[in-house]
Amino acid sequence: xxxxxxxxxxxxxxxxxxxxxxxxxxxxxxxxxxxxxxxxxxxxxxxxxxxxxxxxxxxxxxxxxxxxxxxxxxxxxxxxxxxxxxxxxxxxxxxxxxxxxxxxxxxxxxxxxxxxxxxxxxxxxxxxxxxxxxxxxxxxxxxxxxxxxxxxxxxxxxxxxxxxxxxxxxxxxxxxxxxxxxxxxxxxxxxxxxxxxxxxxxxxxxxxxxxxxxxxxxxxxxxxxxxxxxxxxxxxxxxxxxxxxxxxxxxxxxxxxxxxxxxxxxxxxxxxxxxxxxxxxxxxxxxxxxxxxxxxxxxxxxxxxxxxxxxxxxxxxxxxxxxxxxxxxxxxxxxx
Length: 336
Prior knowledge:
There is one protein chain. The protein contains 11 helices and 14 strands. The protein is α/β, with parallel strands linked by helices. The chain starts with a strand and ends in a 10-residue tail after the last helix.
């Protein structure tokens, strides 16, 4: 039984993580942290957990947390997450980081997009990216895993196989994504306020969303050459889910059947990726760790569509999938 600590346990991703771990036969949640005053009971923060988990959210120091946990999931925001993780790693605790702190390889690119000097810059470029479909073997041995962003998960899974096999060009890729409101987190923000987002559909972060360099980095690795996507996210008035539509240019005369075959071959045996015939919808994958992908060829362009649940495959489900690999459990444990 692996003892689990969760940093920053008040948010949506922490709640999803707790619910997944409660049904995991090899995990025991032993510590939850918060910076809130008063050490609230978890059920007062997340009423869905009433009668299911009897723990308080505490403000624990590194020594206390390391003594109570073998693995820590950090749901803290960027910068704060790295500062908390470093002493835990030094104490021998393995970590899965939900923030963006260890996803990028360059401290300069991190500083540019996150407006903050990285507190653990020398570790960048040496942390495994937690996308099992691409980095499974590295994840198994990792002390620290950088859990992917939700938008990058949907985009990378849709495009990496086609770039890796050379079926699409590296240039001219456009990723158009739509996400439910939970992607903005639990902290109140004006544009996520009900009267603002209900019956509304809007783009945000156009040309400057922080997930763009993350998508670039891992698609460039898949393509073995530089990739710079144009990424535009949109807010949809629904609770959860991401649908990404990626537009790319084929390198030759590959047919739709060829592209679908390449995707199916790449994901053969993957427990959570399905290459489907019809364009997927977010309800097809709600509350699952699945990603559904479809492909079309239209007027000389390749259109790849990808649907995930942003809180599961885009966050907490991926984290449990990584945990399973790190601690020797079957990869689907707690997720099916």
